[in-house]
Amino acid sequence: MNDRVSAFFDAFRVASDTLDTETLAGCFADAFLTADPAGARPVTRDLFLQALPRRAQMFADAGVGRAALTDLRVQALDDHYRLVRTEWSAPRTDGGDPVLLSSSFLLHDDGEAMRIVLYLNHQGLT
Question: Could you give the number of structural domains in the chain?
Answer without folding.
Answer: 1
